[in-house]
């Protein structure tokens, strides 16, 4: 998978509020699929599993089987890759412009 395909998969996965909530739920610790399903009373287990599949395909979730239990782990590397590629450089450029503007105003 090319880096552009990876970015597309990550953005697609992040487009859903349910998938973002799953990632938030996994932020502090791995959770079983059953525990994740318990966080979404209004959707069934099959739907949660479909969302987990999209997250896995994007590399945002790593599933580990322990017997009959599936543990879901957050992999934040694809999010960090997006930050490094877009957010960091754009924020740095905006900060630099604001610093120049501040200097120009203070010089007057």
Automatic annotation (TrEMBL):
Q: Which SMART domains match?
A: HTH_ARSR (SM00418)
Q: Which UniProt keywords apply?
A: DNA-binding
* Occurrences of domain HTH arsR-type (ranges): 9-84
Q: Which InterPro entries match?
A: ArsR-like_HTH (IPR011991), HTH_ArsR_DNA-bd_dom (IPR001845), WH-like_DNA-bd_sf (IPR036388), WH_DNA-bd_sf (IPR036390)
**UniProt GO MF annotations:** DNA binding; DNA-binding transcription factor activity
Q: What is this protein called?
A: DNA-binding transcriptional ArsR family regulator
The record lists the organism as Sphingopyxis italica
């Amino acid at each position: 998978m090319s880096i552009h395909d990876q970015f597309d998969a990550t953005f697609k996965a992040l487009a859903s509020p349910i998938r973002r909530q799953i990632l938030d739920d996994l932020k502090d610790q791995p959770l079983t699929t059953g525990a994740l399903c318990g966080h979404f009373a209004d959707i069934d287990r099959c739907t949660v599993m479909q969302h987990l599949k999209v997250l896995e395909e994007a590399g945002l979730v790593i599933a580990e089987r322990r017997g009959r239990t599936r543990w879901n782990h957050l992999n934040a590397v694809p999010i960090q890759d997006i930050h490094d590629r877009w957010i960091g450089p754009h924020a740095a450029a905006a900060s630099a412009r604001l610093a120049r503007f501040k200097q120009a105003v203070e010089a007057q």
